[in-house]
């Protein structure tokens, strides 16, 4: 489905608008830029499919009615009565989201009656943090952890001159409910730092391209900006000159971008500057920026990814998993109202399996956003098919206090996206499903990810036979589980090649200071994070989790090696020993990848050739890599443990 010149239409191919485009539509209400967007969408699709945008007073089958000017209200009411489908919204965003809802329903939006229902996002902030560098970074390239070509926003050290594609991106984001984008890397290098000051015009240009689709622009800033850009001798958050610099600089940002969303900050983390240098707390740091943003309605997203990456294993206090909770829980209640603490979903770093971060739910008096990684840094780098909807859904449904799901404790969901200037947006065309699923789960964290996948399939391949949908489900539904099977076992994580993080290296990080260990020896494997004998991390959870994770007898199998160091003969709840589980899952993972490749090959005549070929080629690499993982992990553990495979399979 390639409708738009040199890039793929993803989940908005023309054909997805057929039902809407064939109708007589009316757009009603006072002046509003997003209402104009809605109208322009309809005019475009009507020209294609024979419908018409009529004037008020004429009969219409679809009415989009903007009843107010409340730009903060993103909700809309949808109903169908007496042959007329109506979307009513009090703000422009709601009207736009309502239009996309009608598009998703297709012909279903114009048949029978639809009882009136109001739809509203569960989370106010549904945001993407692009790790895009303006200038190509010598190690990380243009997009840090990017697997889909160059940046959508930046090329040759400046904002792209032609922003048509950025606009198209905003449109895709609106269609899955995303309303905010940070346009530069959280690791803020020298060129990127200047976006805040003399390069703000570049940001304004991008903001202008995203604005028609209700997407607000944010910026990652360096905590040291007053020194780097302002010529001040310090960045101390309590220094009046520093505060005045931030206030004045922020006022100028708003002159250039009146609806600017705010700042994203990675401080005292992996070499980024922060308040610790001045003996100040992270609340002091965040609140200074919050104060600068407050008069303009902006928000600071302060990341909780704070740990010491130069600290080798010493004792329980150096367990990296503990770091975010240890740093931030003492600060609960100290953060300003427009400061949001942005917490990675797990305590480590976007592994294929981690427990949910105990920080979520532990700071009741702090606004919180949960951060996910859509870019597949640790999940196959968009060479492997790995649909992460089920993982995210598990995170969002987890009840940190035993009662309220994580998805309701947060007021924002943020992700590091997977899109770039690749013609399929995401390198692996099936990885588009991850971006779409993220947006829809941010809108409704309780949604069933499989139904979200159904939506994505239907929009992306409109009118295609059920066999294609079945095939896509077969290839994607279990793909996260497949990836988990052939990579690091039972929640232990990492075992990846250092630096780029692709492919296996069991001991790659075992003796490094980054804090990511598995402690495998001849007797056993896993990290003891119990309170009784380990790092005490399990005690950061509220009940029932603290108790459940504390003992290897009750800890869920999939997290066993995250929480416990056990002998290879330890029997899992599944009835298998740990060592046999490792062997079996690694053989199974490869078999499942082979099966997915076979299913995909069978869909050849149902998918656009270029898209089919791109996915097919990636399956070859996935299989090669899966076999490599299987062989390295299995032979490593065979040699460490000396325990043979119970089924006598050959282990290379
Ligand atoms: C890690 C990435 C690194 C990021 C860091 C972060 O490897 O490139 O800078 O997360 O979240 O996963 O800041």
TrEMBL record:
Record's keyword annotation contains Glycoprotein: no
Name the domain of life this protein comes from.
Bacteria
Fetch the SUPFAM superfamilies from UniProt: (Trans)glycosidases (SSF51445), beta-N-acetylhexosaminidase-like domain (SSF55545)
Domain Glycosyl hydrolase family 67 C-terminal, residue spans? 426-649
The record's top EC class is hydrolase
Please name the InterPro entries in this protein's record. A-glucoronidase_C_sf (IPR037054), GH (IPR017853), Glyco_hydro_67_aGlcAse (IPR011395), Glyco_hydro_67_C (IPR011099), Glyco_hydro_67_cat (IPR011100), Hex-like_dom2 (IPR029018)
What are its E.C. numbers?
Answer: 3.2.1.139
The protein's GO terms of the molecular function aspect are: alpha-glucuronidase activity
Asked if the keyword Hydrolase belongs to this entry, the reply reads yes
Residue ranges of every copy of the Glycosyl hydrolase family 67 catalytic domain listed in the record? 117-399
Q: Which UniProt keywords apply?
A: Glycosidase, Hydrolase
Q: List the protein's name.
A: Alpha-glucuronidase
Q: What is the lineage of its organism?
A: Bacteria, Bacillati, Actinomycetota, Actinomycetes, Kitasatosporales
């Amino acid at each position: 489905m390639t409708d738009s010149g040199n890039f793929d239409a993803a989940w908005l191919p023309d054909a997805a608008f057929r039902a809407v485009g064939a109708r007589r539509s009316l757009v009603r209400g006072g002046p509003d830029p997003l209402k104009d967007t809605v109208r322009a969408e309809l005019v475009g699709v009507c020209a294609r499919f024979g419908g018409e945008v009529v004037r008020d007073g004429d009969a219409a089958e679809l009415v989009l009615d903007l009843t107010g000017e409340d730009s903060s209200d993103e909700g809309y009411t949808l109903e169908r009565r007496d042959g007329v489908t109506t979307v009513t919204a009090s703000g422009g965003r709601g009207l736009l989201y309502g239009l996309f809802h009608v598009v998703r329903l297709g012909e279903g939006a114009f048949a029978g009656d639809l009882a009136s229902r109001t739809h509203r996002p569960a989370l106010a902030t549904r945001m993407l943090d692009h790790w895009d560098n303006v200038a190509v970074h010598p190690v990380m390239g243009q997009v840090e952890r990017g697997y889909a070509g160059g940046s959508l926003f930046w090329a040759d050290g400046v904002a792209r001159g032609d922003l048509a594609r950025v606009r198209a991106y905003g449109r895709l984001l609106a269609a899955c409910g995303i309303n905010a984008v940070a346009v530069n890397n959280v690791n803020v290098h020298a060129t990127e730092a200047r976006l805040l000051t003399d390069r703000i015009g570049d940001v304004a240009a991008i903001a202008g391209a995203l604005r028609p689709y209700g997407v607000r622009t944010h910026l990652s800033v360096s905590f040291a900006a007053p020194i780097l850009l302002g010529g001040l001798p310090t960045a101390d958050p309590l220094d009046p000159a520093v505060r005045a610099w931030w206030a004045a600089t922020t006022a100028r940002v708003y002159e250039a971008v009146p609806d600017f969303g705010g700042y994203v900050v990675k401080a005292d983390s992996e070499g980024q500057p922060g308040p610790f240098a001045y003996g100040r707390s992270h609340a002091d740091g965040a609140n200074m920026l919050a104060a600068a943003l407050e008069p303009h309605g902006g928000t600071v997203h302060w990341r909780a990814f704070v740990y010491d990456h130069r600290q080798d294993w010493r004792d329980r206090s150096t367990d990296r998993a503990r770091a975010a909770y240890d740093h931030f829980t003492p600060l609960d209640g100290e953060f300003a109202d427009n400061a949001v603490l942005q917490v990675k979903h797990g305590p480590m770093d976007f592994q294929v399996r981690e427990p949910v971060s105990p920080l979520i739910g532990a700071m009741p008096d702090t606004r919180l956003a949960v951060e996910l990684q859509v870019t597949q840094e640790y999940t196959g780098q968009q060479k492997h098919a790995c649909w992460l909807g089920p993982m995210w859904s598990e995170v969002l449904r987890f009840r940190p206090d035993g009662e309220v799901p994580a998805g309701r404790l947060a007021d924002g969901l943020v992700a590091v996206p997977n899109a770039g200037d690749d013609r399929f947006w995401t390198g692996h065309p099936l990885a588009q499903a991850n971006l779409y699923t993220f947006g829809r789960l941010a809108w409704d964290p309780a949604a069933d990810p499989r139904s979200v996948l159904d939506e994505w399939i239907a929009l992306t391949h409109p009118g295609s036979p059920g066999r294609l949908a079945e095939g896509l489900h077969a290839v994607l539904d279990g793909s996260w589980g497949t990836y988990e099977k052939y990579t690091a076992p039972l929640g232990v994580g990492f075992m990846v090649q250092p630096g780029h993080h692709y492919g296996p290296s069991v001991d790659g990080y075992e003796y490094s200071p980054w804090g990511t260990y598995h402690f495998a020896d001849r007797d056993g494997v896993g990290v003891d994070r119990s309170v009784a004998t380990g790092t005490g991390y399990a005690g950061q959870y509220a009940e029932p989790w603290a108790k459940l994770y504390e003992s290897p007898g009750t800890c869920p199998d999939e997290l066993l090696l995250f929480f416990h160091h056990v002998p290879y003969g330890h029997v899992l709840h599944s009835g298998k020993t740990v060592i046999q589980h490792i062997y079996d899952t690694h053989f199974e993972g490869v078999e499942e990848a082979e099966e997915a490749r076979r299913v995909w090959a069978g869909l050849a005549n149902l998918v656009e050739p270029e898209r089919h070929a791109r996915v097919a080629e990636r399956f070859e690499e996935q299989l090669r890599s899966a076999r490599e993982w299987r062989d390295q992990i299995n032979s490593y553990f065979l040699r460490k443990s000396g325990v043979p495979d119970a089924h006598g399979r050959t282990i290379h």
